[in-house]
Every structure is written in structure tokens, then in C-alpha cells.
């Protein structure tokens, strides 16, 4: 693919507009655009530059703006970069309305006409905030001469990125639905129409040809639907970009793999299939009841040996300082527990016919994490099946918690290495289960709630809804709700309120109780553990949130419809 780029700095004065017109016209001819497309490109750029010059004069800003031209992927991309002091913010411009024949033109507000003309000339328009700079990005795709007004998406020849995983709802069906997965990234759930299209994205066939094949086999589909599908794939980073792939050297990719260590286990689906074959009996009601009974039975030793177990928890800090090997043994036990937990999810997914594309060991936040990919469950037609896949791991963990409590109680008071290990293991397991069912954290409980409510991205939508409402009431922003049904808005309220209460009950109260015990009994009155917890929370969570909030403020992009 040929990439051509030029950039020129232009003073904010009208006498330089002729240079803009000449540069764009010559560039369009060099890359082979027709005369009609050339006029559209020049028209859009001149409209933007004229408005930019006017806005610069308004605040007496003499800083030059940069005009960038690039030909990439059969498209000409025009970028106009300018100083943030210039009051030109296209994302805040109201939509222009074409006046009726009887309207008095002297009363028509033409402040948005320049942006309306740009949208008319160009295929896609974006506005970016890049720190102290602003960038207006306009894209025009190539068409055959005489077809300049055809939908831009139809001339494209996209190809799916390598490594994507396609989960078909029923491979035997002529036109199945699917879940398209970018490992470690986004997931798209597509119906028969979308599945038909993506299975034909080979980098050689145009979307117009795919559109015509769709009409023949499945019936009509609007070009706007093809456009939405393309933009969804692009936003999910699922389309191949040969230029970006070529730019990344082998050494860069190698360093990236080392930093983001993610080791896939070969033949993941075969492994889970074998495990399922040997544990199929657990899916009977009797065995399921037995697993739950094992977990519940852990309350018996916890009650009978409460004083001893509490004493061990209180002295756990001193014991770990004396015997650091406890941390190593605890870590190994937790790793085994996580493997069994994830296999619990995978075996249930396999039981209902899902494919397991990945079992992997990932290095995350200074620790190794084992995970099992059960994305195929998104295709399951019954909500009950999807819920059971989410419950598979917690049921295994619940049974392990019961076993761990029995072992910890039997070893209590023996003053061996393992009594402290299993006490700590049971404590961590309890908190992990509590966190797993916390609907505010994207873990098992959250995904079960998403299945129950049928609202994807429930957490993000609820928080955005509450943020807008509460800040609006306090006078710090607009009290503007998301586009949602009244029923969804009620669920957003309930999620935020009940989720907070669940967090306090399942996580907050046990932490407070533990800190109280440590403050009374431990050798450092709990100050060491409390300091570590506070540092982790503040530096980890708060620091991360603050960083991304600030970055979002300084670097954001708007698509101008």
C-alpha cells in the first residue's frame, strides 16, 4: 500500500487560501482522485480554513495552523491542526438546519453552515483534543469516476485482523449468528447479517460486492448498516492495518510480549473437553447439591474453632514475618485454586456446547493469573446457560473454601507451617468470593447481573447515568440522562445504590472487622497491614483513575455525525 504524506504550516491570513486550494488539488491529482472528488476535498478544506482564520482573528491569535495531507488505504485524509486558544470547537457546534422556502434569510443563523458544508463534502469528520493542540480530521474515500456520491463504505476492501476468534452459534446453520472476539480486547455479538459480511472480508472483495451477495442470499440491507458494522469493527481494532503491522519491528513485538506476558496453553479446547468428560457426573442435581453442602459445611469448623482461627488471623502478621516461606506456599495454593476456578467456568461452557479457544497464564499487577476464555457462552440461546457458566467458577471456589476451613480448623493450634498457610488461604478465598459477587467489580457477579438485566456494559452506563444526574443537581454539569428507556434508567439507579450497599456488606464490613482485630492484638497494632492496604488502594486505584481521567481530558476524539 502506497502512503503519501505532506504537511505545511500556514499563517492565519486569507491571502494564503489560494495555496491551500493548490496544494490539495495537486495532491488529489497525484493520488488519482477524480475531478469531482478533488473539488469536494478542496471545498471542505477551504471551508474549514476560512472558519479557522475568522476564529483566530476573533482572539487575535497569530499562531500558524498546520495543514496535513495523507493518502492511505484508498483515502485522502486532511488534518488541520491549530492552537487551543482559537475558539473553534466543532463538537460543540449545533446542527445546521436547512431553512424552509418561506424563511427570512436575515434571521437564519449560519454559524454552523461551514461545518454542514464539510460534512456534505467529506465522508467522515473527526475532532481531536491533543493537549494544547486541536485537530480537525476529514476523510474522503476513493470512488470510480461517475460514482462519487455512492456510500463511501461500498468501495472499501477491508480484511479482518489476524488472530481473531469467531464463535458461530450453530456451524450447521446456513446463516448463523456469531461472536467475534479480539483476544485480550473487544468482543462483538453479530446477527446472521453481520456474520455473513465479516466472513467475506478478505481484503480483496469490496463491500459493494458483499452487499450484492447479501441481497441475493439474505435480502436487502441498507448501506448505513454496512457503515455501522465497519465502524464497529474499526473501533474494536478488528480490522487489519498493514501499515501499522509493517511499522512494528520483530524486536518491538518481542519486547511487548515480554512486558505483557501472556502464555497460551496449546490445545485448550481438547484439555477442557477431557476435563469435562471426567467431571460430567458433577452436573447432576445430587452432585451439585453436594458441592454446595461442602462449601456450607465450612461454617461448622469456623464456628466451633472461631477463637483459635481468630487468634491465628491476629498473629498471622508476626508468623509471616518469622516464616516468609508461608507467602510462597500460599501463593502456590492460590494459583491452584484459580486454575480450578477457571476450569469450573470452562467445563460448564463446554457442557453446553461452547468452544474454549484459550487457556492462558498472564502476568498482571506483579502476579501470575490463570484464565479460561468462555466468550462462546455469549452465543448460548438460554439465559440460564449463560448464568451457569458464570456460576461454575464460584461454585468450585465455594467448595474449596469449605475444604480449606476444615483443614485450617483441624490444624489449628498445632503450631505447624501449614496451619498458618490454610488459615491465610481460607481468609483470602473468602474475600475473593465476596469480591467475585460484588456487582460493582467486573467479575462473576457483575456478568451474571448483565445476563439477568440484558443490558451490556451495565456498569459503565449506570455510572455515567448517575454521574450526569448527580453532577447536574449539584450544578457542576448538565443534568442530561443517557438515551435509555424508563425501565433501563430505573435499573441504573438500582445498580448504583444496591451495588454500593453490597460492596459495604460483602467487602467493607469484613475489612473493618479485620482491621479492628489487628489494631487490638497484632504486634504492630495492624499499622503495617493497614499502611500497605492504604498504599495499594491510593497508589493503585486512585492513581490509575486520576491518570486516565486526566489523559481523557487532554486526549479525546469526537466523531462529528
Description of the molecule:
By secondary structure, this protein is α+β, with helices and mostly antiparallel strands. It folds into three domains: 4-103 and 112-150, Heat Shock Protein 90, CATH 3.30.565; 165-247; 262-436, no CATH class. The chain is built from 20 helices and twelve strands. The protein has helices spanning 17-30, 35-58, 113-121, 192-198, 207-217, 223-235, 242-247, 250-259, 268-279, 285-297, 299-304, 306-314, 316-322, 325-351, 383-411, 417-436, 444-453, 458-474, 486-521, 527-554; strands at residues 4-10, 65-72, 75-83, 124-130, 133-141, 165-168, 178-181, 187-190, 262-264, 359-364, 367-372, 555-559. It has a six-stranded antiparallel β-sheet with strand order 1-2-3-5-4-12. A three-stranded antiparallel β-sheet has the order 6-7-8. A hairpin with a 2-residue loop joins strand 2 and strand 3 (75-83). The longest helix has 36 residues, at 486-521.
Quick overview:
The chain is 55% helix and 13% strand. It is α+β, with helices and mostly antiparallel strands.
Q: For the residues shown, what is the average pLDDT? A: 80
The counted number of beta strands is 12
- Broad structural category: alpha+beta
Q: Classify the helix fraction into a percent range.
A: 40-55%
Question: What's the arrangement of strands in the largest beta sheet?
Answer: 1-2-3-5-4-12
Q: Would you identify the regions where 5 or more consecutive residues have pLDDT less than 50?
A: 245-249
